[in-house]
# Entry
Amino acid sequence: MAERSSFVVVANRLPVDEVIVDGERQWRPSPGGLVTALHPVLTQHRGTWIGWAGGDGEAPEPFELEGINIHPVPLSAEELERYYEGQSNATIWPLYHDAVETPVYKRRWREAYRMVNQRFAQAAAEVAEEGATVWVQDYQLQLVPAMLREMRPDLRIGFFLHIPFPPIELFMQMPFRAEILRGLLGADLVGFQQRLAAQNFVRLARHLLGLRYEGQSIQVDGRKVKAGAFPISIDTADMERMAADPKVQARAKEIRAELGDPETVILGVDRLDYTKGIELRLKAFRELLADGKLKVPDAVMVQVATPSRERVEHYQTLRVKVEREVGRINGEFGKVGMPAVHYLHQSYSKQELAAMYVAADVMMVTPLRDGMNLVAKEYVACRSDRGGALVLSEFAGAATELRQSFLCNPHDPDGVKDALLRAVAAEPAELKRRMRVMQRHLRTHDVAEWARSFLNELGVPETDAAPDSEE
Ligand code: ADP
Ligand code: F6P
# Structure
């Protein structure tokens, strides 16, 4: 029987990667911001993390890794297709991102979503001690809070949505909309990235279920459900340290040399996802080359497009379109040994990404809609030299905080081109001033602060919630 915990995290993915050492299956921690932020709370409480270990079929037995109980949940091949690729990533993902691609609705996906959510809730009910705190993460698990409350009314339940929460008009498209909303209302606290998203949620509760609310507090069956904004962040100190490492600095120089020491390196780093605005960014670059406002080899673009959700049709179509555009630009503007766009459909270590950030004069983050966008924050944290310019979409959650970036509307191609040109031409003194303000913000608003503020609001005592301090 699995060990019981007073603090439980429930997320679609486990914070571990499988590695094969001498033909043997082993697990190592995967270095994500979320697990870094929650590690101190998890270790203090003999905490458990419930999630999918990747792959299909039987799940490994629960095990302990670096002080955290890891509790794998199995997904069959069919569930993977219906719950993860279907309902989560072909229905909810596009709908919550302003329907920038058309959401697909299928009854069998919904049923699988319900079943898998029930399995996660069941696992949490089994491992949580009497009166424990359970923190459920993200859009894949929106039914878990209500399912869990039904089984274990003694628990304190938090939910955090990492992606946007849509306005009422869009949410109302969803065939099982009331069930999703009731699922979320099973929590004591529902956290969002943005204030507007929290407002969408409380208004929806009144619109769809006739529930009363006061401020950000909704009355549900004699209980109070709070909604609030908790913008997620990065481990700023860790990112700063990594970027300052002489090896990373040397690698950044090497990258620039490998690119032919151009005057301007323009960088994009995104999952290959249609919400990220990769195509429009490439198009802006092509038009500036065609207008003669930028020239190869003085300016080159590096686009890292991390493989993602590759069996989902929207993602397959996007890959074809992005790769066609890259081919077109290189065909028209590249020279022998000097492509205009260096396109990389690969994953990298955090160090290599940090070196790319340090090497880039302009970072382009142009999503059509994004809950937060941590890449934008990572870029800022890595620029200890206070050089570099961030071009940032107004439709990324990060735009609320990173006001000194070169903000643009990604739906307006001329606006994107203009922001890119302004970033390229900006004086070093101006870039420094902008970076300084943004870096100061990220030092106080890091991922540990995010976790602390959410858990405080949920009622987990401050001393327990506060992660170990570096100072
Ligand atoms: P999303 O959660 O939608 O993927 P974010 O920008 O918020 O977008 O977070 C992406 C995270 O993935 C960042 O921490 C970034 O450093 C990391 N990442 C992006 N591309 C790669 C890559 N090619 N290799 C390794 N890590 C990556
Ligand atoms: O930020 C949203 C999110 O779905 C996270 O939950 C997840 O870690 C990331 O994007 C990558 O997506 P996936 O887990 O589908 O590969």
